[in-house]
Design brief:
Blueprint (H helix, E strand, L loop, with lengths): L10 H13 L4 H12 L8 E6 L2 E6 L2 E6 L8 E2 L2
């Protein structure tokens, strides 16, 4: 299983992620939970996946994080713990 890439993200993807954080008002607390989870170096599927947090859902594909969803928005792919 690949690990989530945390460095050298494509510039357009990084801009998209920052835009979603601002637009969806993802809190610093949620980003802290995300950072702590990323520190565990979780393995993720090669295809679409998502991880639920109390105030957001992280969506990705393979090693890349793709977007942030708010509670109530429906993710697709394999749910990871």
């Amino acid at each position: 299983m690949p690990e989530i890439r945390r460095a050298k993200l494509p510039p357009a993807l990084l801009a998209h992620l920052l835009e979603r954080i601002l637009q969806r008002q993802i809190s610093a607390d949620q980003l802290g939970l995300l950072a702590a989870w990323l520190d565990t170096r979780p393995g993720v599927p090669a295809g679409p996946w998502f991880k639920r947090f109390p105030g957001m859902t992280l969506c990705g594909e393979g090693e890349l994080v793709k977007t942030f969803l708010l509670p109530g928005q429906l993710p697709y792919g394999q749910e990871i713990q």
